[in-house]
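Researcher: I'd like a structural prediction for the single chain below. Treat it as a standalone chain; there are no partners to consider.
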Amino acid sequence: DMVFTYISPSCEQMSGYTQGELIGTSMFDLLSPDTPPHIVRRIRNMMARVRETGTSANPVFELETRRKDGTVILVEVLPCAILDKDGNLEGFQGVTRDITERRRAEEERKRLEAHLLQSQKMESIGTMAGGIAHDFNNILSAVIGFAELARCNAGDPEKVEKNLGEVLKASERARDLVSRILAFSSKTE
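Model: Treating it as a single chain, here is the predicted structure.
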């Protein structure tokens, strides 16, 4: 039932509980109320497998537990089954390590990496701005030029149609350029 029979001094320090307070209580009593049910099921299934097979599987679990002062910490637990000479489960011993700060540091690193990537993308956009402005200016020149030609050739429907077709092509190139810029500058991969 995962009832504590021994607590190390380092576990006392990590949890804030004394040996006397923990011995006789279950590991499940220390779990955070937010512990996903699948984690509890995984632990119970592992214990059942050991009971049935008599083999000692040593999975590592990450669990949120409550310290005596009510704070929640993330711990890594490496349980090891204790089997008698006939292979029957007598209990578990394990190593528990507080990984709260390590996890926070990993999350902060990921956040900073994402921020750096976004900053690099924005810097690239700044670098490309000159080239983009030049390309966009060329497209606008074509739009304006062909629109003026269409106006000048208002009496010749065939020339007007051709000039307006060029205006539409240049406008579509401008739209595609803007779409690529927006896709590049977005926060997605």
